[in-house]
Design goal:
Largest sheet: 5 strands, mixed
Helix content: over 70%
Structural class: alpha+beta
Radius of gyration: 34 Å
Distance between the termini: 61 Å
CATH topology of one domain: Heat Shock Protein 90
Strand order of the largest sheet: 2-4-5-7-6
Shape: elongated
CATH superfamily of one domain: Histidine kinase-like ATPase, C-terminal domain
Strand content: 5-15%
CATH architecture of one domain: 2-Layer Sandwich
Number of helices: 24
């Protein structure tokens, strides 16, 4: 029952976009022929939000029309609002992925446009969806805290109570009940001063479930009754259905079966007026449990079968697991043991699927830990950098005081010799001064060289600290993809290669120079992962000149992979046909050159595609690698990059070639 809260009451959030006492839908439709340009965009968005629960397809049409017109007018605020309306419409149509993508776009655009309240609403909805639909509480916390951050940065209390309430809900899910209750009460302190009935309904509902989890059932009923009243005053059908099914659950725990049935029947009548399938599932599932408690097993089975049909249709795996268990129990009571066994088997199968989803969530938590460790390492390196600055200042100060002391001693010695001969004193004085100055300059130059070397080492470590998580997160995305798709064999293959890749990266990150063989091993593992991830969208080959011994050639770690990644993402993946990537390592008089050739769409076309993309991702790996090469080249000429656009006789692009020339170090081969 835990997910009922956010899954249905998301619609209470969405209804907040509309006026507290909105005009009728018919009256707004009548205004459409008279509204033009930006006013028409706003009206279409209002209609989309108002019609969502009653007519999901019409809601989608209104929001799509609003977005099309806003784009034609280049109405930036309207584009952001239209993506939000479109996201909500997709949710009413049970397409959660489209809903999340559009809410993401709306939130980021609103932030760029300084539409603070719109950004906060989107981040709150995303937090709710990640928790309720995907069970990803790490992402949920990310967006709730993001909404809270916007509130605090703008010194705004807009929806701050919803952010507190969402954070409390996640703590409650983690069984940190004290933290959960503290955040609920923070939210309540803000909400009770407003007329925001729907948000107040959500908060009362969450507090009620908190008391239900703690087995304080009378307190739970008290807060759920307040929630029901608030939702009815706010006009939220989704919230009303949610609270009624939760009340039924508590009444069943108290043994008050007649009250449970009354709550379920009221929820059933309301669910007939909405199109949201999840609401219908929860009502039928609750009625099935109530009739089971009443020992009316035939009715119980009928409602549970309706619930499972809806759950199968919209792929509610976790809920299917629980409902199949209920069907197994009721079939056993009806002495239909064959059906009971079949339902028990289905329950077990979906329990495995839910565990797979939990493993996916664990991978997400792993990614967050990696990011935290990277930040911590950067902070440590920054502290070391500051310590080096302090050391430099201390050494210079000591040197200066030493020079002053030498000068003072020299002056006393010269004064004693003045009585002997003035000419000799003057000569010696000049000589000593020259020697002192030369010594001072030599010491200063030595200190400067040592400082610059230490500073370069610190900068190099900082860049490597950025590079390693960058490489790891790309591989994690590949692993997540197949786990989510439940392709266990490919997921297992990914995990095997990924573990080897992690070991190589951790080993290599501790060395300024590694062997070419180690660099190629890491690169091959990365390429294998990308080929699998993109369903063999491209092929690759790696060839090393016969005259080279990869074990005895030293190169900086992670120096080639970013160029290969760039060729895949910006060249090969845009091709309609299968792409080809060739990596050739050849000798040079003082090192090696790596030639990376792809038959992708070329740099010009890739730039055009990137400029049209809504999410213009930066090539962090390429930028970091350029910075590393620049830093290495401060000491000596270590590497250079040449990029060649390949074209045919008609100047049509044939792909891109990157030549990386590296002055290599000689290593002792390991046997």
């Amino acid at each position: 029952m835990r997910k009922v809260i956010l899954a249905l009451t998301l619609f209470a959030f969405f209804r907040l976009d509309v006026l507290a006492q909105p005009p009728s839908i018919d009256s707004l439709r009548a205004l459409l022929p008279f509204k033009k340009d930006t006013a028409r965009v706003s009206l279409l968005n209002k209609l989309s939000l108002l019609t969502g629960s009653a007519d999901a397809r019409q809601s989608l049409a209104y929001s799509q029309g609003a977005l099309q017109l806003a784009n034609q007018l280049d109405f930036k605020n309207g584009i952001a609002l239209s993506h939000r309306s479109l996201g909500i419409a997709w949710l009413y149509n049970n397409d959660h992925q489209q809903a999340i993508e559009n809410l993401h776009l709306s939130g980021d655009m609103a932030l760029a446009n300084k539409q603070w309240e719109l950004a906060i609403q989107n981040y709150l909805n995303l937090g709710g969806m990640y928790c309720s639909v995907y069970g990803n509480y790490v992402k949920g916390m990310e967006f709730y805290t993001k909404a809270l951050g916007v509130c605090e940065s703008q010194n705004s209390t807009f929806k701050i109570y919803d952010a507190y309430s969402g954070i409390a809900y996640i703590y409650q899910h983690q069984h940190e009940n004290k933290k959960a209750l503290d955040y609920y009460m923070k939210a309540l302190g803000y909400l009770e001063k407003t007329n925001d009935h729907n948000s107040l309904g959500i908060l009362y509902q969450n507090i009620g479930e908190h008391y239900q989890d703690s087995q304080q059932l009378n307190e739970a009923v008290s807060y759920l009754a307040k929630s029901l009243e608030a939702f009815k005053r706010g006009g939220s059908k989704g919230g009303t259905i949610t609270t009624l099914t939760l009340l039924s659950d508590v009444y069943r725990q108290q043994g008050l079966i007649e009250k449970a049935l009354a709550s379920d029947m009221e929820a059933l009548e309301i669910s007939k007026t909405v199109t949201y399938e999840r609401a219908k599932y929860y009502v039928n599932n609750s009625l099935g449990k109530t009739y089971y408690a009443m020992k009316e097993y035939a009715r119980s089975k009928s409602f549970l079968e309706q619930a499972i049909a809806i759950a199968e249709k919209i792929k509610m795996n976790e809920e299917m697991r629980d409902t199949y268990l209920s069907l197994a129990q009721v079939s056993d009571k009806l002495s239909n043991h064959i059906e009971a066994y079949r339902y028990q088997q289905l329950h077990t199968a979906y329990a495995d699927s839910v565990r797979s989803k939990e493993r996916t969530s664990q991978l997400t938590e792993l990614e967050v830990r990696f990011e935290s460790e990277r930040k911590e390492k950067e902070n440590q390196l920054l502290k070391k950098d500051n310590d080096l600055h302090k050391l430099f200042i201390t050494v210079i100060t000591i040197s200066f005081l030493s020079v002053v002391s030498i000068g003072f001693l020299f002056f006393n010695r010269q004064r004693l010799k003045i009585k002997s001969t003035q000419a000799l004193v003057e000569s010696e004085k000049k000589l000593m001064e020259a020697e002192a100055k030369n010594e001072q300059l030599r010491q200063a130059e030595k200190l400067t060289r040592e400082f610059n070397q230490q500073l370069a080492d610190v900068e190099m470590k900082a860049l490597k600290a950025q590079m390693n998580p960058h490489f790891i997160f790309n591989s994690l995305n590949s692993i997540n993809w197949y786990i989510i798709k439940s392709e266990s064999e490919k997921a297992s293959l990914y995990l095997t290669k990924f573990s080897k890749l992690i070991r190589l990266i951790l080993d290599n990150s501790n060395h300024k120079i590694i062997s070419l063989d180690q660099e190629m091993s890491a690169l091959k593992l990365y390429l294998d992962l990308e080929v699998l991830r993109f369903n063999e969208k491209f092929t690759y080959s790696i060839s090393i000149h016969a005259g080279l011994n990869p074990l005895s050639i030293g190169v900086p770690p992670m120096i080639i992979q970013p160029f290969v990644e760039n060729a895949i993402w910006h060249g090969l993946l845009h091709k309609e046909s299968v792409g080809k990537l060739e990596i050739q390592i050849d000798p040079m008089p003082d090192g090696i050159q790596c030639i990376i050739t792809d038959n992708g769409v070329g740099r010009k076309k890739a730039a055009e595609l990137k400029s049209k993309a809504a999410d213009k991702e930066k090539s962090y790996g390429m930028n970091i690698t350029r910075d590393r090469l620049n830093m290495l080249n401060r000491e000596s000429t270590v590497a250079s990059i040449e990029i060649i656009d390949l074209e045919d006789n008609q100047n049509q692009p044939l792909g891109t070639q990157v030549i990386v020339k590296i002055v290599s170090a000689e290593l002792e081969p390991e046997f």
